[in-house]
Amino acid sequence: MSKNQAFAGILYVGSYGAAAEPTIRVCAYDGAAGRISVKQEVTEVQNASYLAVDSAGRRLYAVSETGQTGEEAGGSVVSFAIDEESGELTELNRQLTHGADPCYITVDSANNAVLVANYTGGNAALLPIHEDGTLAPASSIVREEAPLGSNTARQEATHAHAIVVNGNYVYLNDLGTDLIHTFRIEEGNKLAKQSSCKLHSGAGPRHIVFHQSLSTAYVMNELDSTVTLLNVSASGELTPVQTVSALPEGFSGYNDAADIHLSPCGRYLYSSNRGHNSIAVFAVDQADGRLTLLQNASCEGDAPRNFLVLPDGSQLLVANQKTGNIVLFSVDEETGHIQSEGTILEVPSPVCIRLGAAR
How far apart are CA 69 and CA 66, in angstroms? Predict the structure, then answer.
């Protein structure tokens, strides 16, 4: 797809910050011009570190990554209505996540529930969604105890780091125990455990993505900066197949891996490195899903915590948390390589970019 057909529409940017500061920004994006502008700044959501938009584009849900909510222990999740014309947000309600520092949120495929991973709390919660988009109190809270990984500094406890829906199954990554747990949502909006997949010790699974056409998934391992390819069975079970480094050969400095996404065509996989400060680009074998590292491109900033691949696959946007900038990259659709087009927005501590409606 040509640059003239690039995405134009609404983007949502979540940031760390105090409640009095803007932590969610509604932005207008023009892909053809490579330009972004802020339409609305939302305050009163402390540390809006992860966002999710429902499949109808009518609601946005944001975590408030804190250890305390008023007098209650743990973080919270905030529901917003999205204006159909402008994309701007109006708060609907808030609910507790029943765990400290919620760091990931997703909406199920039917827009019936949100699911939240509480990092410090080490647990996950399911909150039903009412027809008007407001959230009900959590109907299911799960915590899986298991032996901890070998990285004693970071794997001192269970750390739920992502919760993702794929088909009929829900997957919960536990950085602390090197496990990915599989659940089903059963009657009464309850999470029912199905199985667990053990990764190599010290991996620290963070984010996970599922291939569009292959029966494979890819998990970004934060602690040793690797990506693991997993086969996905019809019953939702995961089996590790291949693990590759997301860093260039010979690099020995500090790094925490972070985010991971597939290209819309499924031919390329991208992941972010904090420390090396790069985006890794992998080729995806279309027969078996195996990975080959193609490139490590500078992210043009410090700590690329999250990034977004635009719908046509020709561009991606990288949020650099520590330098407070969002960088536009163009994608060579023949080679998969990416090229920086420079910073297009400066914003304090950006940590999540989500797609809204096309305009």
Answer: 7
Kindly state the average pLDDT of the residues 68-87.
97
Question: 260 and 209 in contact (C-beta within 8 Å)?
Answer: yes
Give dist(CA 138, CA 148) in Å, integer.
27
Contact 71, 113 (CB under 8 A): no
- With the CA atoms of 142, 168, 199 and 160 taken in that order, what torsion angle do they form, in degrees rounded to the nearest 10? -30
| HSE of 81, CA atoms in CB hemisphere, 13 A | 12
Q: How far apart are CA 342 and CA 48, in angstroms?
A: 25
Which residue's entry shows tokens 């499924």? 266
Reading the block at residue 337, the tokens are 């390589």
Residue 1: band (very low, low, confident or very high) from pLDDT cuts 50, 70, 90:
very low
- pLDDT tier for residue 355 given thresholds of 50, 70 and 90: very high
33: CB partners within 8 A, 6+ apart: none
CB of 163 within 8 A of CB of 182?
no
| Cβ atoms 230, 158 nearer than 8 A | no
DSSP state of 349: S
- Cα–Cα dist 246/268, whole Å: 13
Number of other CB atoms surrounding residue 296 within 10 Å: 19
Q: Which residue has the tokens 């969610």?
A: 24
Amino acid at 117: A
Q: Give the CB-side neighbour count of residue 311, counting CA atoms within 13 A.
A: 15
Rounded CA separation 188/241 (Å): 35
